Amino acid sequence: MPKNKTDNFLKAIKKYAGAQKKAMEGEVKQLKSERLKEAEEKAKRDSEALKKQKLNEVHNSQTAKLATKTQEGQKQLYIARAQMTEEVFKLASDKLKAYAQTAEYRAKLGDSAKAVAELFGGKDCIIYVNERDIAEAEQFKSLFSAGSEVKADKTIQIGGVKAYCESMGIIADETLDSKLDLQREWFVENAELSVL
């Protein structure tokens, strides 16, 4: 009998060990499954984060390239706009210079001088004209006070009359040059050649 007890004891230990082994194998299997699931989830999160990072890098790179191209395009548009404006005003200036050679211009020059003289109300002033208009200016000098003098002004490229009255501290500018410059400002603001 003692052998039977020993056998039973050994069987009980084996049975217990087997049950423990199965329980441990189950725990190991469950632990493996949990760890594998955790690893898969971590890999998925890391993958998503990496994908987002790469997408952000590509987005930022493309945005930077687009901004650079946009700026370059705006620069080219600005240059083209400036060139077009210069061409338009060069043509206008050339036409005005041709007009300044006509009899109609001479009559308008006298009208401009009269308007300037009225503004100064008989006060002495210096009358400025283009060098080619000096002879004409001497003729309408009588519209101004006796102390007024006529001078050539190299800044008057096209024509017209400009006068300065020191006692009043004002300049009256009836030159075609200044009128063309005013038109340039209007043109730039209203020609709808905007750079977006």
CATH class of the domain at 100-190: Alpha Beta
Q: CATH superfamily of the domain at 100-190, called what?
A: ATP synthase, E subunit, C-terminal
Strand tally is: 4
User: Which percent range fits the helix content?
Assistant: over 70%
Q: Give the CA-based shape.
A: rod-shaped
* Rounded Rg: 48 Å
Protein structure class: alpha+beta
Mean pLDDT: 86
Q: Biggest β-sheet, characterized?
A: 4 strands, mixed
As for the CATH topology of the domain at 100-190, it is hypothetical protein PF0899 fold
Portion of residues in beta strands equals 5-15%
Helical region count?
A: 4
Major sheet: order of its strands?
2-1-3-4
Regions with little confidence, pLDDT below 50 for 5+ residues: none
Q: What can you tell me about this protein's structure?
A:
The protein is of the alpha+beta class and 196 residues long. The protein has a domain at 100-190: hypothetical protein PF0899 fold (2-Layer Sandwich). It is built from four helices and four strands. It has a four-stranded mixed sheet. Helix 1 packs antiparallel against helix 4. It is rod-shaped and about 155 Å long. The protein starts with a helix and ends in a 6-residue tail after the last helix.
TL;DR?
The chain is an alpha+beta fold. The protein is built from 4 helices and 4 strands. Strand 1 (126-129), helix 3 and strand 2 form a beta-alpha-beta unit.
